[in-house]
Queue: 2 jobs
Job 1
Amino acid sequence: MLMKLQLALLVILLLACGFLYQFTLKSSCLFPHLPPYKSQQGLEALLGHGRSIVFLETSERTELSPLVSCAVESAAKVYPEQPVLLLMKGLNSSMQLPPNSTSPALSLLSAIDNVFLFPLDMKSLFEDTPLFSWYTQINSSAERYWLHVSSDASRLAFIWKYGGVYMDTDVISIRPIPEDNFLAAQTSQFSSNGVFGFLPHHPLLWQCMENFVENYNPDIWGHQGPELMTRILRVWCKLRDFQEVSDLKCLNFSFLHPQRFYPISFLEWRRYYEAWDTEPSFNDSYALHLWNHMNQEGRAVVRGSNTLVENLYHKHCPKTYRDLLQGPEGSVTGEQGPGNK
Ligand SMILES: *[C@@H]1O[C@H](CO)[C@@H](O)[C@H](O)[C@H]1NC(C)=O
Ligand SMILES: *[C@@H]1O[C@H](CO)[C@@H](O)[C@H](O)[C@H]1NC(C)=O
Ligand SMILES: *[C@@H]1O[C@H](CO)[C@@H](O)[C@H](O)[C@H]1NC(C)=O
Ligand SMILES: *[C@@H]1O[C@H](CO)[C@@H](O)[C@H](O)[C@H]1NC(C)=O
Ligand SMILES: *[C@@H]1O[C@H](CO)[C@@H](O)[C@H](O)[C@H]1NC(C)=O
């Protein structure tokens, strides 16, 4: 009897929480005084809806480049009703984060209503997935591409567990993706792992995690990344070349045309840093992958340069544009990062 009463009270409390939660996404009902990055419970509550947009930073860095800031801000702008998460290895739960003192980008982002910064705790992320035993056995300091490989693993586990959309930190969102379950084509018959989205517990991602561990090869860059996605995609889908701009349907997910995220191919990445006579409308695209890993020469986004990328920042991440870009005399380069391949 007492237990029933307790149960009833608990249900009422949870309902009340859920109700409040609708109105105050940012403040966690159960932990009202904790900033979101301090409470793992806060994270679980946010993820309950399965509709989050997630970005990962697997290095220890807490300084964010303007490009990372733009990626996160643009997603927050395109998905105002959905939580946008930035999980960072460099934050930890015991840390009292003073966003203002660590990085201007962090304070800019944490001031946006639907942006949430959390520590990336891989061990608990991999729990209950095929990646857990792999992770606990690996000596990460002996791994050549650890930042990339751990990022590849984390995004699979996260989207499998919680659902939502994963994006690299060099992807600028321009309009909502109208699909719940999708992989993105980089070219015909080849999947990227820089953007993908699924509802929770989709078996394709489970299969990816199993294959990740079974065929683990740490010395080949991308083997656990785009190549893994492509291997598994071929199991699920009868692939043919894309003809006009239309997506492929594979069972219960879509394989989205390269125009959706890669309207400018990697060979042409410098086009983003050029001024165009007539800028492309990108009206067949949902987001733009800026190919930051190609940018070894450290091209920067400069205010007043009238380059395509400057205009994209101005339109899609106005706060980053205003606060983080330097004028022509300085230069702020997009840093290299595993999250932005
Ligand atoms: C949190 O980060 C600090 C500074 O990087 C480190 O000294 C500390 O051990 C970390 N704590 C945990 C629980 O990881
Ligand atoms: C950061 O903010 C806190 C509280 O608002 C303030 O006390 C502190 O001086 C600030 N630090 C810097 C470096 O601006
Ligand atoms: C992990 O790898 C590093 C670098 O190769 C090596 O120095 C270290 O001894 C290894 N640790 C273990 C526990 O094997
Ligand atoms: C998609 O299809 C697979 C295989 O038929 C099935 O196991 C899975 O539950 C489906 N997922 C969703 C989200 O519909
Ligand atoms: C996209 O833009 C092009 C050129 O600006 C235009 O011809 C085309 O009709 C547009 N497509 C859609 C779907 O709006």
Job 2
Amino acid sequence: MSFDIQKIREDFPILKRRVNGMPLVYLDNAATSQKPQQVIDCIVDYYSNYNANIHRGVHSLSQEATDAYEKARKILQLHFNAANAHEVLFNSGTTEGINLVASGFTNLLHKGDEIIVSALEHHSNIVPWQMLCERTGATLKVIPMNEDGTLQMDVFHSLLNSNTKLVFVNHISNALGIINPIKEIIDAAHKVGAGVLIDGAQACSHVKADMQALDVDFYVTSAHKMCGPTGVGMLYMKEAWGKKLPPYQGGGEMIATVTFEKTTYAEMPHKFEAGTPNISGGIAFGAAVDYLNAIGFDTIKKQEEALLQYATEQLLSIEGLKIYGTSEDKTSVISFNVGEIHPYDIGTILDKLGIAVRTGHHCAQPIMDFYRIPGTVRASFAFYNTLEEVDVLVAGVKKATMMLR
Ligand SMILES: *Cc1c(COP(=O)(O)O)cnc(C)c1O
């Protein structure tokens, strides 16, 4: 491998841990990534040296905290190539970002309107839209999936019409790792005048998403899947939508003036950022993005492709092992089952061996229903994983299979 993997691993203190007496093999990166020392230090530094509320105080600490927080917003703007820093909204994560947009559409949708979701979504990109349909009388349409985990794009195109108001699809599926053709989806939706929300929670640790090139309306992600802390995320919102959508929550920070007769709202981003935010989280989100860019997304991609290819080959050598999501366009996520063995049983044995994988429906029950399975074992790799760890996984699955068959 072309880069110094041992040096990278040194950045992540948790990777030195032992679990159940065995060296930790962390392969649950699609649920959350581990954090490098640089990000941990950033949080400690904030609370140790300049903790203060932002945007309000004239005192020096408040200024320092505000500057650091706004610098993080700028880092995200540049990373995601948003046209304006105020289109980058901080919130608590992907789930909140989606709920903010769904809530904002309450008065913009009416009976007869249609919104489109894909069959590959995380529950957090399904349920808020179902709730929106209940509030507005709009209808939810679904883009079905193929056996290989791709979307039936011909059906998608046939679903679009002048009643379509919104389309929401994930950039990369968390359950299967499939990369969706989001540019094609955005362009086609715009042709009928519909807005598009892309759920980038699973994508942003693997690829650099370009807001202007995509011409996307809304793009949501969570810091914790990108080596940042939990409880903070980004909602990119195109400026024009920021004027159309009402505020999400009322409170401090989101107002321009308040009297009991009438309150006027602040402009973006503050309009959508009521209350004291997760200040250290926002600053550390910026540090995490800096960390990933210092390694480089090309390097990350190469490393993860090598892991995916090797792990796929090795796992498929196990008799009865079936991988779900076999399209070529995928990232380093392998969802599998072995024969009729319940995924939970395999996961439990792997844990005894120090190997962390996820088992279950991965918050994407419709995909499991499609394959008629209760769930899968999901191994998801990050750039700090090694080929040796793949060997440990494969030996572990073999052992579990032998014990359970
Ligand atoms: C993780 C994930 C979510 C949910 O993210 P939260 O950080 O829990 O809000 C949504 N969609 C996808 C595709 C995900 O991978």
